[in-house]
Structures are given as C-alpha cells and as structure tokens.
Sequence to fold (398 residues):
Amino acid sequence: MSLNDTPSGERIHIGFFGRRNAGKSSLVNAVTGQELAVVSDVPGTTTDPVYKAMELLPLGPVEIIDTPGFDDEGALGELRVKKTRQILAKTDIAVLAADGCKGLAQCDRELINIFKDKDIPYIIVYTKADLNSHELNGDNEIAVSSLKNQNIFELKEKIAALAVNVSSEKRIIGDIICPGDIAVLVTPIDAAAPKGRLILPQQQTLRDILDANAMAFVTKESQLSDTLGKLSTKPAIVITDSQVFGLVSRIVPEDIPLTSFSILMARYKGFLDTAVKGAAFIKNLKDGDKVLISEGCTHHRQCGDIGSVKLPALLKKYTGKNIDIQLSSGRDFPEDLSDFSMVIHCGGCMLNEKEMNWRRKNAEMQDVPFTNYGIAIACMNGILKRSLGIFPSLAAEV
Fold:
C-alpha cells in the first residue's frame, strides 16, 4: 500500500456471492473492468476469496471480494463455504449473482436470508441477460450481461446508491478538539516501527487533526518533556502510542488531557464501551487461562513487538499468573472462542467497522471479555480513568 492509498479498513467492502457457475466471476470482472477473477465453465473455479482494493466509479475507494460458490460440495467445498460465510462478517454491500437462465436457487435464497439477518444491503443481479430475459421484482434487482457489458453501468449506480447509506462521517479526534487547538502526538521510533513512515493510526489521527484546523506536534517519548516545555500554549490533548503509555503519563501534567491512538481507534471502530468493560476482567485472570492476542493485519513480528512480546510480558507481570498466550493475525480470527478467558485485540485500523463489530459480537455471544491493546495497557498502568477523561461518561464507570 502506498502512502496515499486509502486503507482497507476505510474502504467500502463489496462482496460478490452466488452459487457455482452462475457468472459471478465474470460479473466481478465486468464491474471492475479488470481480469480480477479467473473465469471458466468448470463449476468451482473460484476456490478462495479474491480481494482487490481499487477505485470504483462512481463510488470511490472500495474493496471488491469475489467468493467461492456457496453451493460447493465435499470436504473442501465445505471449507470454501465456511470462508464465504466469514466474508459476510466484513461485507458492507452484497451483490448476489443469480443465474438468469435458471432463476434463484435454494442457496441463493439462503444467502438472501443471511443478508437480511446481518442487515447487509444487497442487490440481486441476474446474469446472462444476453441469453435470457428475466422478470425483475423490485428496485434491488437488475439483469446484466457481463459478456455484452449490458447494464453494468446501471449496476454500479445501484451499488453507489447503497454505498451512500454505508459511508460514515465519524471522526477520530476532530469532533473533540477545536480549530487552533494544539495536539501533541507521541510516536516511538524503535525496532518494531515501520521504516520510513508512521503506523496507520498515527497517520489517520494526524490527518484528522489537520482536517479540524488544529495544530499537531509529533515527538518521540524521549523528547516529550522538551516538546511540552517549548510550547508557549498548553496543548489541548496529548495522544500517545500505547506501548509508552506509562512513561508518557508520568511526564504529562494532570491538567492536560491524555489518551492513546488505540483508545481513539476503539471509539472510531465502535467498540470503546465494550473494550473498557472487557479490560476490567484482566485482574480476574488465573493460572492457565488462555488469552487471545489478535492483530488485524499480518505484519512481520519483530523483536520487541507489542502484541507478541510487550503485552504478554505486561499481562504476566500485572497478574502474577502463568497465562497461556495465543496469537492470531490477519483474517485468522477464530469463530470458536470457548477456550479463551478473554480477547485483547489491536486497534483494528486495517479492518472495517463491520468486521470489528463481528469480532466483538462473536466474543460477547460466547461471554468472552473483549478489549484492545491501548485500553488493556492503560488499565494495567493504572491510568485508564485518566486516559478516558475526554469521554466523561465512560471515565465515570472505571
């Protein structure tokens, strides 16, 4: 991803679903204008989800997902269908490709019911319109021919109309600070920091501050005291990376609001309340309890990595217990969490809000406490109440 690319978590995720050989992959290629998916007359050609981040006019930045046939059979087929179900957890808009020569099949109707249950806006697309004229029943249906490029533009317009309801105007910090305010961002540069750039939550927070017509000062934790001393105006807020939360809290005066990128991301992704309640469970962990530490992305873990090294060490020091730490990353978030005593998730900057909510709800349905890195670290450093000061109603609950 280049520095100017829209992150995956900020893109509208459009999933293409349907049974095998219904023309789904041809439809994906026609909509994207690219040979994104392999097309064949052999049923089951798409064996794994295919992802493509792109600009799709008139929508803008989207992530297109082509899924395996929902009627796949056999042991491998069941695994493919399971992957397709997992895609539904992150789908903002669903496109159901139904064979226009055969009409809706049982698995198509099952998919429609899933869309409705999960409250996913959807469009039914009857393919192969050059071979058959299918009667339409409603504004969310359209007949197209991928081969003849018939009604593909109209389909994009329908998708764009649904996207209007999906787009969010939520802010990371811009609705809390005022124009002219000063925000100090504390960004450690260590062996785990990506070379030549800031991590995504830092980039996004910085941009949101500038969009709010406020001013941002970026500094390392080792220079924070000097930075604060050189400012003639008291900052409106200090925002820190979670891994130096304890140190930064000792440097920043009590009369300056302090929070973390991770706490702001939990709010932005819609699970801050849950994460605050989940962190309270840390003190109840016992010897042998399994804790899942989950990363939303698949970066190479290095020496000093916060998820695999620093956070586990802090957990064991804080609790004094022999805790069994399990790690997951990327799309490999387990559906069955029954073996875990709690889940500590990253900020989720690379996941869209829909998938973060699925992971949260999955934990809640299994009565597994769910929190994130920054909130867990603030809790274990005894500064959670202070770090939630910009959210008074939440701080009052700690």
In short: The first helix runs from residue 24 to 32. Residues 8-166 form a domain with the Rossmann fold fold (CATH 3.40.50.300). The chain has a mean pLDDT of 87.
